[in-house]
């Protein structure tokens, strides 16, 4: 047993659960906000009947298995059974579409942020609002369903996100943290609620299309970090912990999106700070000190969990294509009878990229497993192209994939920097791609021409971030969130910062220019292969 936690009690524990794009993770933290146990459940999105989705059954099976794995670890390490814990929080992938009828039945399978079928609705709403409505946002999904005359639309009584859905079933409360809510509908930064003027505009637009319900009645109530999101019900406790150990009545913080928990996990909720999350998708979150002057289809305007305005550059694709290639390399090694761990595979091959040529062998990759709004790609097809008169070797091949992972994000960040006055005091990166020390971090610093910091806690991720928000909600304090993070959470955190390297900046910029010139190749693939993706079910 850990001597530092020999007196650990159930009441000391705050629990965070995050439903991410590749796994559901549960984290338990103690009164010092240190992780004492964790558990996870691997899952994948599926492309079914034209939509990217996750099984509702997998949501609950995954939650239970992830939670159970955490409780097993805490029992083994501390001989502790969790019963009445301090607080619980739920986080999930932002955006998407979960629509329910008056019987609380799901009307259509969960449509995730990855779906790009809402382009028409997003464009029409953006023009009407003079405010960018991305294709991923819940209101765009709803309007597209209205435009498509889907049979379920007149039966909708509630619309929420993945985190909001799970929280609702655990507490009975139809609420949502402001950060997650800002990915459903535009937020008024002054009132910390949905924009009334745009709600009225939406109702008029929808009514003209035969949809008579008031949108504001369909949306969750907005809550701020530090407020109560309700209490765990008896049914909710059984749903999360079928063993019956977990008790009802536990405080739950407002459910938040993965972007918000990423900001908490990297201590970037204060103005002029930012973070970059790199996983299945990638997004940069820059907390603004001034409202953007113009509207950009490439830039979302969302909020921190405590309601500050954020410029969000989101790319649908980041590491999925790399992971697929790594799986292929792993299969080759298995056939050869070579024993290796995943960390060894990624580590050695990532480090090999350090020996690449400046022109990375004339190689080019589009890592688009799904469509990409920033580069106007409707349907994604991972594409690898090479010029035959250069060095085709592993170092160049892996550098190409690492460049590809950040290229679309670079395009969005450049647009923001070139058109708006943005002051970034610090930019923190987190995600599995940074696990191999310095490699991806150095590429990102050179790509964005900005110092990039990686914290030693970066691997804790969003599940830890929502556990911190749960802990914060249980405090009897009015200390602002950024002050709480600075003075109580990150006061002794170690971090490493890498600066741009001149030659790597040149190499990356040259690569992105080549990538832009070749975009018509990627954009045209669907013309010749379109239909295959919609005719079958696939896993990403």
TrEMBL record:
The keyword Kinase applies. One of its GO terms (biological process) is carbohydrate metabolic process. Residues 14-237 form the Carbohydrate kinase FGGY N-terminal domain. InterPro entries: ATPase_NBD (IPR043129), FGGY_C (IPR018485), FGGY_Carb_Kinase (IPR050406), FGGY_N (IPR018484). Keywords: Kinase, Transferase. Residues 275-474 form the Carbohydrate kinase FGGY C-terminal domain. The keyword Calcium does not apply. GO terms for molecular function: kinase activity. Pfam families: FGGY_C (PF02782), FGGY_N (PF00370). PANTHER family: SUGAR KINASE (PTHR43095), XYLULOSE KINASE (PTHR43095:SF5). Belongs to the FGGY kinase family. This is ATPase.
């Amino acid at each position: 047993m850990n001597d530092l936690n020999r007196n650990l009690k159930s009441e000391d524990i705050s629990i965070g659960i995050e439903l991410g794009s590749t796994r559901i993770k549960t984290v338990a933290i103690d009164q010092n906000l240190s992780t004492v146990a964790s558990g996870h459940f691997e899952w994948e999105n599926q492309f079914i009947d034209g939509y990217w989705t996750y099984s509702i059954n997998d949501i609950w099976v995954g939650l239970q298995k992830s939670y159970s794995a955490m409780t097993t670890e805490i029992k083994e390490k501390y001989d502790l059974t969790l019963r009445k814990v301090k607080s619980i929080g739920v986080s999930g992938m932002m955006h998407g579409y979960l629509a329910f009828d008056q019987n609380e039945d799901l009307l259509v399978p969960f449509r995730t942020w990855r779906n790009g079928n809402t382009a028409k609705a997003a464009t029409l709403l953006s023009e009407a609002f003079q405010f960018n409505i991305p294709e991923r946002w819940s209101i765009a999904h709803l309007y597209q369903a209205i435009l498509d005359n889907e049979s379920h639309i007149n039966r909708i009584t509630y619309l929420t996100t993945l985190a909001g859905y799970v929280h609702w079933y655990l507490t009975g409360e139809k609420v949502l943290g402001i950060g997650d809510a800002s990915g459903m509908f535009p937020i008024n930064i002054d009132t910390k609620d949905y924009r009334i003027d745009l709600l009225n505009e939406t109702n008029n637009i929808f009514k003209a299309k035969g949809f008579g319900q008031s949108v504001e009645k369909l949306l969750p109530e907005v809550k701020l970090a530090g407020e109560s999101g309700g209490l765990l019900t008896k049914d909710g406790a059984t749903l999360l912990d079928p063993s019956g150990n977990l008790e009802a009545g536990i405080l739950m913080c407002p459910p938040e999106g993965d972007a918000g928990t990423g900001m908490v996990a990297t201590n970037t909720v204060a103005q002029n700070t930012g973070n970059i999350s790199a996983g299945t998708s990638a997004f940069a979150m820059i907390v603004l000190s001034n409202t953007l002057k113009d509207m950009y289809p490439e830039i979302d305007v969302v909020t921190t969990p405590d309601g500050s305005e954020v410029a969000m550059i989101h790319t649908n694709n980041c590491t999925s294509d790399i992971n697929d290639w790594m799986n292929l390399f792993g299969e080759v090694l298995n056939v050869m009878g070579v024993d290796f761990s995943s960390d060894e595979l990624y580590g050695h091959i990532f480090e090999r990229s350090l020996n690449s040529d400046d022109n990375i062998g004339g190689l080019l990759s589009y890592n688009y497993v799904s469509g990409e709004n920033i580069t106007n790609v409707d349907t994604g097809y991972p594409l690898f192209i090479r010029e035959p008169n250069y060095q085709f070797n592993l170092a160049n091949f892996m550098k190409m994939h690492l460049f590809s992972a950040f290229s679309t994000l670079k395009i969005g960040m450049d647009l923001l920097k070139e058109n708006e006055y943005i002051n970034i005091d610090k930019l923190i990166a987190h995600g599995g791609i940074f696990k191999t020390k310095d490699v991806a971090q150095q590429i990102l610093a050179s790509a964005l021409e900005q110092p990039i910091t990686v914290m030693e806690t970066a691997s804790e991720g969003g599940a830890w971030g929502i556990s911190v928000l749960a802990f914060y909600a249980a405090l009897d304090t009015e200390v602002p969130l950024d002050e709480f993070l600075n003075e109580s959470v990150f006061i002794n955190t170690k971090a490493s910062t890498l600066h741009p390297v001149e030659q790597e900046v040149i190499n990356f910029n040259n690569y992105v220019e080549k990538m832009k010139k070749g975009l018509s190749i990627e954009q045209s693939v669907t013309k010749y292969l379109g239909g295959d993706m919609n005719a079958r079910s696939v896993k990403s």
